[in-house]
Amino acid sequence: MSQFHQSDPRILGRRTLEGSFRHLVARLGPGMSVLDAGCGTGSITAGMARRVGATGRVKGIDRDAALIAIARRDHREQANLSFDPCDISEANFESEFDVVSAARTLQWIGDPPAALANMVKAAKPGGLIAVLDYDHTTSLWIPAPPRSFQSFYHAFLDWRSANGWDNRIAVHLRDLFESAGLENVEVLDSDEVYSDAGSEIWLKVIESLGPALRQGGFNFDPAVEVEYSRWLAEGFEGQVLSMKTAFGTKPKPLAPRYR
Ligand SMILES: C[S@@+](CC[C@H](N)C(=O)[O-])C[C@H]1O[C@@H](n2cnc3c(N)ncnc32)[C@H](O)[C@@H]1O
User: Judging by DSSP bridges, how do beta strands 81-85 and 123-134 pair with one another?
Assistant: First the structure.
């Protein structure tokens, strides 16, 4: 079973820091250094760079070199922003960043504790770790989507589980953060609510991931694209993607007299 999936740049490119990682905004300020793990096309990362300003710096990393190429092309005018191909599970940054973030990234990693440990290593003592991610099992479509879509979504969840990816990573973030030794752990509800064309995201997911699901033997009703499009046009009222943001700080070493 492949441990790799490709995110659709059409979906990633529409995101913004303010709209798609909103709880992080107030935690970023001028002069900060930020590492964004799993930056994709860099849309959210570019918002971070604007927020930390000319005296700050932001580095986006992603294991998908094609997405890094798009990020470099689309954001080349921002001098305080750089992008590198790099797997966060193999990264070797040490105590370099004020903030280390990962949005919608741990959901695609088979060993989240190892990835989080590397994020913690990359942060300065006292630095902030920020993770935003999904609970795919509690997302909602209103009214219920067509049965063909339900068959696709079940196949999607089964395919993810078979690859070792946690469908409920959002609700496991507190435990992950506490086990990683982080302090001041805070977990905030961060659901994404769509009442408009934003829910076309699933048409793109069907198109981009459908072949990988079928290749893995996770079959679904081929009528899904036509029926889901019709449902979006005629029946759709809303959609809620169930998400959480976790924050924690890397402990500072104790002063010598307390050792
Ligand atoms: C759903 S996209 C999210 C992109 C962006 N952070 C956002 O919220 O729109 C997940 C990204 O994580 C990347 N990714 C997955 N596993 C990774 C890893 N181990 N190291 C670095 N990037 C990874 C994928 O290539 C993909 O670009």
Answer: unpaired
Q: Please, which pLDDT band fits residue 197 given cuts at 50, 70 and 90?
A: low
Q: How many domains does the chain have?
A: 1
E strand or H helix that includes residue 48: helix 43-52
Q: Going by CA atoms, what residue is nearest to atom 14 of ligand 1?
A: 38
Confirm whether 65 is domain-assigned. yes
How far is the C-alpha of 113 from the C-alpha of 118, rounded, in Å? 9
Over the stretch 214-229, which tens digit does the pLDDT of each residue have? 999 999 999 999 999 9
Counting from 1 in the atom list of ligand 1, the atom nearest the Cα of 64 is: 25
> What residue numbers bound the domain in which 34 lies?
9-251
Is residue 109 situated within a structural domain?
yes
87 lines ligand 1 (CB under 6 A): yes
Domain CATH code at residue 79 = 3.40.50.150
- Please indicate, yes or no, if residue 4 is contained in any of the structural domains: no
Query: Which residue has the CA at smallest separation from atom 8 of ligand 1?
Result: 103
